[in-house]
Amino acid sequence: MTATMTPLGPPGHMPGRDSFLQLLHAEWTKFRTVRSWVHGMVVAALLVVAVALLAGFSSDQKGASPVPIGPGGEPVADTYYFVHQPLAGDGSVTVSVSALSSSLSDGLTGLRPGAVPWAKAGLIIRESTRQGAPYAAVMATGSHGVRMQDDYVNDRAGLPDAVSAGSPRWLRLARSADTITGYDSTDGRKWTEVGTAKLVGLGSTAQVGLFVASPPTVGGGGTAGSVSTATFQDLRVHGGWTAGNWAGEQMGAHSPTFSGYPAHGSGSFSRSGDRYTVTGAGDIAPAVRDTLPTGGHLRDILTGTFAALIAVIVVGALFITTEYQNSMVRTTLAADPRRSRMLVAKSIVVGAVAFVAGLVGTAAAIPIGTRLASAHGVYIFPTSSSTQLRVALGTAALLATTAITGMACGAIFRQGAGAVTTVTVAVVLPYVLTAIPFMPAGAADWLAKVTPGAAFAVQQTLVPYHQVASNYTPYYGYYPLQPWVGFAVLAGYAVAALAVAAVLLNRRDA
Amino acid sequence: MTVALHAEWTKFRTLTSPLWLLLGAVAVTVALSAVATSAVSCTTADCGSDPTRISLVGVDLGQALVAILGVLGVSNEYGTGVIRTSLTAIPRRVTVLAAKCVVLSGAAAVGGTAAVLGALLTGRIVLPDLSGRALSLSDGPTLRAVFGSVLYLVLIGLLSLGIATAVRDSATGIGVVLGLLYIFPIVAGTISDPHLRLLLEKIAPMSAGLAIQATTDLPSLPISPWAGLGVTAGWAAAALLVGGLLLCRRDA
């Protein structure tokens, strides 16, 4: 403290700037010499690691079937009813779809008719029947018109509207070496190209045929199983291909992404004349949190962030309320009467310490937690190292900003309990509320946009897909804001709290 | 004891913050319930779940203010040094703690009743077309949920009082309380071992205690309503026991 009593620095220095460094030094000395504050920050880092250990050790997915991995390295769902035959060389296959109807699982009565927007029925060419094999497909869907999809993640739109007996859709896939081109038509004569796909590793013989998939539908915060039936006509192969026998089977029945057929439903295939009726369930698409119950992601491992938050909020609030309690604040303000500068110096000190604690905690927790969870059979959604870096830096910044907000609220309330409660409730309660099962997705998204809890978006590693219907809610790890935009919301609250604290500090007697 | 009670009651009523905290608890409880009931989508006649529980969701937030009330009841005295005066006047420390518990329980019960009834009334106004018996105090499960929620708030107040007595600092005290209430269930949610997870949900003071608010689908709860409230009572008793022991053994 004696250092701040001499506001003039050595000759040749800007006095103001020098005294700020001294102020900073004074605040740092205060912080590091109070043992319980330092312990509080160490506890924050340890909590992040401890919960990662707990989450890793407690997981028990040993014996779960391996998760299929698509050509891009992402986890995929690859379950569908397949009516197929191997065909060598180049050629084309054509079919018309005249009906696609779906039924939903209904807890008590079994099945009831219902809409499945992403039910799929069409043609597919696959490298093999192996789970996760490269493929290209053109299909009619429940309510998204004709689509051409390939390698799980790519999706292009073709003709709009659903199929019916009065308005069927003709579909065609043509292979030329490793390039597959999809076409659609309303009459079977005039064809439009929907798109092309280049399949890496396609051998001379490919599996070609009809498929039907029917993903679970989303509603009321959960999902319901579904099954769909399609009617195909005019199935023919041409170009260089000659048709043999069509064989039908359910693919990926034991995949962890497949929850099985609803009660009273099963996959089947029947032929009468040139009419094929195929019933199937499952989906050919990238896997998301909902469809991969055996999966985990980085946010699960970093749940200790919530506990660490409370520790840094308490330390942040104490950093200033203790000064009010023992009247140290009068000495501090006597040493440097420009009061707002004290807030800035305290923010820098407590923010920097919390940032380091958070970075150390996450840097240890991410590798330890992911390894432990993987060792216990959990599939961790893959993340690039740049994403991991963003999660670690973002979590550290989240802790730092929250500690600064705690300090600012401590200056506003001049009393610890109110400050800690305000910040904790603002940052943590939104998550508690979004975890309530009946919370509608709209309300959960709104909470994750406008409350300081928006900053948890920095921990998102999951990717939503427009062609997969799912619960993309904060509870499942999908945030409505981009990572750094969510963080900016929290930073905005921190700046507002500091501004209010500065105004009050200047107006009130200390 | 009468003297101690009178002293605590005088301290309580002559400070302005307890009154504001109680009014705040009522306000935030009713406000959150109003937001939740208007946000919930009622696609089916029973709102897809439990209308009583949705109406009482404000208790999730209101308990934080009751917790501050409990913490400040003790830590303020340590902060200002009044605790030494209190213990000089009444050297039997257990008596002082007991008197604080009685005054806090009374205040939390009054504030809690106003908050919970306000939240229920909000639910009745906001939720459309409920079947006749729902959200009425003449319905057995709803009455149990309302009465239990008030008891829950009293227990949270006592838990906070016990923890504050043990740590003697308001920021640390409230940090521990909020950690127990909010973080415990979040951490339990990451446990993928179903048995361990169920166990943690059974022993967490918030998720166990709020089982008292459920009126439908009771078998799906981690713990039955009254047993859950018993768990919260156990936490409060343990906190008061530890706080009381430390109060008797340490210098003030």
UniProtKB/TrEMBL annotation, chain A:
One of its GO terms (molecular function) is ABC-type transporter activity. The chain crosses the membrane at residues 37-57, 301-322, 343-369, 389-413, 420-439, 484-505. Keywords: Membrane, Transmembrane, Transmembrane helix. The keyword DNA-binding does not apply. The keyword Lipoprotein does not apply. GO terms for cellular component: plasma membrane. This is ABC transporter permease subunit.
Automatic annotation (TrEMBL), chain B:
It comes from the Bacteria. Keywords: Membrane, Transmembrane, Transmembrane helix. The chain crosses the membrane at residues 54-75, 96-122, 142-164, 171-191, 226-248. This is ABC-2 type transport system permease protein.
